[in-house]
Amino acid sequence: MTDAVRDSKMFLFLFLSAFIVPNSVVAQEAYNETQVCYGVLGCFNNSAPYNNSFGDLPKSPEELGVRIWLFTRDNRSSHDVLNYTDASSLSDSRFDPTKMTKFIIHGFSSSFEKTHWILEMKDKLLNIGDFNVVAVDWSKGATFPDFPQATANLRLVATEVKRILDMMRNMGLDMSKVHLIGHSLGAHLSGYVGQLMGPNVIGRISGLDPAEPSFKGFTYVVKLDKEDAQFVDVIHTDGSDFDLLSGGFGLMDESGDVDIYVNGGQKQPGCKDGVDGLFGGGGSSLENSVACSHGRAHDIFLESIDTTCNFTAYPCSSFEKFENGECFNCDSGCTSVGFNSDQYSARGKFFVDTHHKPPFCGIPYHIKVYPDTAAVNTSGLIYVTLIGDINSTDYIPINSKNQHLNHLTEISSNVVFTIDVGTISSVQIKYERELGFLGGLFGSSSAPTFSIGGIEVLSPTTGQWSSSCRGTYQLRDRTPLTVITNSGRSADACTVVG
């Protein structure tokens, strides 16, 4: 089963859930409180706070068939099987208690062998470090379509992982060297492992867009929380409220020591989610699937493992302020998205903008284009390229496709470029009018020219504004115009115009 098909099935389950939620609430109040016990793993009940799975209890270890596999640099393509009931499975393996130990834990309707990002993450981790890499495959307990049952099952899976960690500790592993990386339901599973081990015992948990269904509004006891490890970093990518149009599989709540909201944390550029992705994706792969924004979290973490790009996230109180260019400084401490986040001391809420496709990391410049009173009504795209003393960028659009433009239009947005240009000396601006039906074969209602009143650019690397003088800049269709810029804002003293 491909990732796209698997994600589509997940959506269909949630699609149906949208219609049964009112009845489910009643059912949740009506189910019988009970418990099940599974030998050394202990007993599990469905009483509060574990009432987030509509009464479902974890299935037996035999039914779940959890597989825990160890990979090292000595056995990249094979694996040692670890068994929570057999300490010799660990002592006889290639596990080295002196090394950092990374766990990879998938979410709903996924598996180790059939999910590309898990395999790629295992390989990337072993490429950059001599780690113990442990993959937890609980696919039999996270199968479509039973999301509530998967929510219940993760508690038993976490208990098995906890017993493996106890064996590792008995062999001499310092728990501060343990790093759990979990996506979606796997993020909450990781948090439950941390809770079982004790507050702030595990070194680190990375939550990749923790799941919202069955967890939103419930106590921290059942979901990932910053007390679950010494350092908890969370990447949010799909946190819009779940509905049939937009998806929204991820949780927006601040859950860690560091919470990074990628492109605002609700929806990712280049993604079609929900019904739009299911029926409008043209049969394409995960890029246009229903859970594209949800999966962007693990794609970004993957990239962060070995990227040379400085994946900087900026502290800010809101996405609106960040998009308005008010938070492009690290005076109160920035952090790095993903793998290297623990190398920074900053804590709190952070924002980062990315490209719409790999490589996602880039340099986010804030660009503001002022309106001109002489501008005519039209529609089209405005492109810019930045020219500095180090580099120049490619052209990138700074407004939405076929946006209506007129004398009141002010464009203000963060635009992610691939390179740092240094001190900006000029900006090239290009207007491309909307051609309309059949590429303008029968003419276009859009104007051949559009005028702007000036441009300002804020560099995140220098923290400085570069601005043109205010005036009328006439843009002709598909013809670049070079505008000389000066240091400071447009309202400041300005002497040079090009």
Automatic annotation (TrEMBL):
InterPro entries: AB_hydrolase_fold (IPR029058), Lipase (IPR013818), Lipase_LIPH (IPR016272), Lipase_N (IPR033906), PLAT/LH2_dom_sf (IPR036392), TAG_lipase (IPR000734). Keywords: Calcium, Metal-binding, Secreted, Signal. The active site is at residues 184, 209, 294. Residues 1-27 form the signal peptide. Pfam families: Lipase. It comes from the Eukaryota. Residues 35-360 form the Lipase domain. One of its GO terms (molecular function) is metal ion binding. One of its GO terms (cellular component) is extracellular space. Belongs to the AB hydrolase superfamily. Lipase family. This is Pancreatic lipase-related protein 2. It comes from Biomphalaria pfeifferi.
